[in-house]
Amino acid sequence: MVRKKVRKNRYKKSTAPAKTNLKKVFLRCFVGTGLLAGLALFAVLSILVYDVFTQSPYFNAKNIEIQGNSRLSAQDVLDQAGLNLGDNILSVSLKKVQDSVTAHPWVAKAKVRRNLPDKMTITVTEREAIAVLDLGEAFLMDAQGEIFKRFEAADPRDLPIITGLKFSDISVAGEKMSPVYEAVYEFLKVKKEYEWALPCSSVAAIKVDRDMGLTLVSREPEFAVRFGYGDYANKLMRLNQVLLKCNKEQGIDVALIDIVDVDRVVVRPREEV
């Protein structure tokens, strides 16, 4: 009987602990330490360079140019921006200056830029006031239909005064306008395009009736025009024709014009009223 030869298992797992490669560990520690030291040195150098540039008189503002302003003076914009001649333009935060300028109620947008080595430019887009809203308190409405500030003595006094609206009619920016507020805004927007038909400076007031619509009161000569709701472009053109005919051709002193129906205009002379 032949005895079978038993083969040894060459792949038996070794229980001996693995040798640690000290050279690799040392190299990794050295590289890591070097990177940290390099980053720290870079940070220190960056701070030193920043301090050198932001404190150098070479970059002090010798000229701050204000563009786009008409209602606000250049000094008004500078005061709002918190800038002065001699300020180092590299130490100024453009975002902070821009936010400060746009915080002024008459400024819709602002853009600030540096012009190296010693100049800054602030470009503003001012709001255009188109009406005064009488809500118990007086507020200004701009060309986008936004209420942007309380009316003050220094504000324009030749704007139409809108009555008949409530605080609940006023929509916050981004929200849908209420129907009566939208009617007022649409009328003012269309009237601006047809300024030749009825100049804005000649309009004293716009009265809002929720059922009957809008009634305009002229400044000089004083007369009223009932517009109702909608179709404002055609009504303004028709109004221009009626006024020319009444005042120049027939010499009628008009007190009231009802143009709610553009095809059936009613004119009332002052003596009748």
TrEMBL record:
**Location relative to the cell:** Membrane
Task: Please name the Gene3D superfamilies in this protein's record.
Answer: membrane protein fhac
Q: Name one Pfam family in it.
A: FtsQ_DivIB_C
Any one GO CC term of this protein is: membrane
Q: Which GO terms describe its biological process?
A: cell septum assembly
List all membrane-crossing ranges: 25-50
- Domain called POTRA: residue spans: 59-127
UniProt key word Cell inner membrane: yes
Q: Which UniProt keywords apply?
A: Cell cycle, Cell division, Cell inner membrane, Cell membrane, Membrane, Transmembrane, Transmembrane helix
For whether the record's keyword set contains Membrane, the answer is yes
The name under which this protein is listed is Polypeptide-transport-associated domain protein FtsQ-type
Q: Which organism is it from?
A: Desulfatibacillum aliphaticivorans
